[in-house]
Amino acid sequence: MDGLNRRGFIRAAGAATTATLLGTRLHALGALQSEPAQPVAANDHIQIALIGAGGQGQFDTKAAVSVPGVKLVAVADCYDGRLAHSKEVWGDDVFTTRDYNEILARKDVDAVIIGTPDHWHKQASVDAMKAGKDVYCEKPMIHLYADGPEMIETARMTKRILQVGSQRVSSLIYLKAKELLAAGTIGQLNMVTARWDRNSSMGAWNYTVPLDASTETCDWPRFLGTAPKIAFNAEQFFQWRKWKAYGSGVAGDLFVHLFSGTHFITGAHGPTRGMATGGLRFWKDGRDVPDVMLGLFDYPEGFNLSLRVNFVDGGEESEGLIFTGSEGTIEIAGNSVSVNRVPRQKEPGLMIGTFTEAMQKQILADYKEKYPATHPEGEPPVGYEKFVAPAGYSDSYDHFKNFFASVRSRQPVVEDAVFGFRAAGAALLSNLSLERGKIVGWDPEAMKLV
Questions:
Q1: Which H helix or E strand runs over 426?
Q2: Tens of pLDDT along 212-231?
Q3: Which residue pairs from 438-446 have beta carbons closer than 8 angstroms and sit at least 24 positions apart in sequence?
Q4: Which residues, in sequence order, are CB contacts of 229 under 8 Å at separation 6+?
Q5: Starting from the edge strand earliest in sequence, which strands make up the sheet with 70-76, in order?
Q6: How confident is the model at residue 132, as a pLDDT?
């Protein structure tokens, strides 16, 4: 992902080419992504700062500064080594600090990327918006349910742009799936099945702890923030997703992506109730969150969502969603979306083989008169189609491009605080259900637990 050639990136504008391969209609999504015809003037640059320079924060920043007209000017992190590395990557003139308030006080910062642990998302976002900065906040938007209303209200009150970092909502692949579903390609949607499987130690959040980790190089009190005050623990500092005090488990890390994608494609606001099961099956290393979780959710639009995250998967690591309708399926896997259309038989059919021949002929004649063979014009074609994104495509880049377009225009973003709260609020129902051992209700319109 580091060597992203952004000006060559491609965006969806329909099916550009079609090839026939073993009966499959194969489409390449794409037209050249539009970029400024002229270099962006120096005084028109959006100057950004990074708050939380871990793996996701640094990845986000590399994608952000590759968008034309964006410049990084400051970085805040609680580990000195990441501040030093930020200068190695982006230059010695980048301002670095342990205290993000020093960044928010700078007049040369227009927007911030918040890549902190989950328990800092709300406070860092609120502080940034009150300081007049636009915010790109990593998912999940919330750590606690009380975070959501405050973040939504602060964005409204300050008139700041807040975009949540579930980049699937800017993906050309997900956009194509949304178009296919809206066009009635698979009939009436009745079920969505989503998965995220991992089989590696890094995938299970066992991030490397640097050799110099100590209370000298790590600002432990600042890192803890509102979390329980305990003695310095290097694993909890660098592998914070493994503990409820700082992260939201597989629900907040991965379920939220699947909810965001489902909501974007279907237009749904969220489930009305959910239940989850799971547990700690393999990574029994002191963490207090599950490594396997399954969830079931009811949507008022008339479909059910089934989710699975597995950190003990023995096969290939993969992510995907299947939208099952009355006349076929839409599947997202990797860099593609495919449609398998098998329309339901509109007639009831016949089972007459045990009757006399005379009765069979009579029933068949009546049947043909009642159900003449018809093929209405405009029906989507039967068969299999696949739409593939260009090699090297990055939805993260498109998500940042959309964010910065909103920063410039002050128009709504693709994933605002309301969308972010509905996705994260739905995802965290899984944690509640597992803790309580029962079904949990949710009002997706009011965004409240029931």
A1: helix 417-436
A2: 999 999 999 999 999 999 99
A3: 438/275, 439/273, 439/274, 439/275, 440/273, 440/274, 440/275, 441/272, 441/273, 442/270, 442/271, 442/272, 442/273, 442/274, 443/272, 444/268, 444/269, 444/270, 444/271, 444/272, 444/300, 445/269
A4: none
A5: 95-97, 70-76, 46-51, 111-114, 134-137, 162-164
A6: 98
CA dist., res. 148 & res. 217, Å (int):
32
Strand ranges inside 231-380, DSSP E: 273-279, 292-298, 304-310, 318-325, 328-333, 336-341
Task: State the pairing for strand pair 336-341/383-388.
Answer: antiparallel
Helix or strand or coil: residue 322? strand
Residue 399 is classified by DSSP as: H
- Superfamily per CATH, domain 6-168: NAD(P)-binding Rossmann-like Domain (3.40.50.720)
Q: Tell me the per-residue pLDDT of 343-396, one tens digit each, with 9 for 90 and over.
A: 777 889 999 999 999 999 999 999 999 998 765 566 666 789 999 999 989 999
Is the pLDDT at 37 greater than 60? The verdict is no
Q: What global pTM score does this model have? A: 0.90
Are 31 and 11 contacting, i.e. CB atoms less than 8 angstroms apart?
yes
The predicted-structure confidence for 270-293, as pLDDT tens digits, reads as follows 999 999 999 999 999 999 999 999
Amino acid at 402: N
Amino acid letter for position 262? T
Location of structure tokens 């026939």: 20
- Please provide the CATH number assigned to the domain covering 184-221+234-345+377-392+417-449: 3.30.360.10
pLDDT tens, 306-354? 999 999 988 888 899 999 999 999 999 989 999 999 877 788 999 999 9
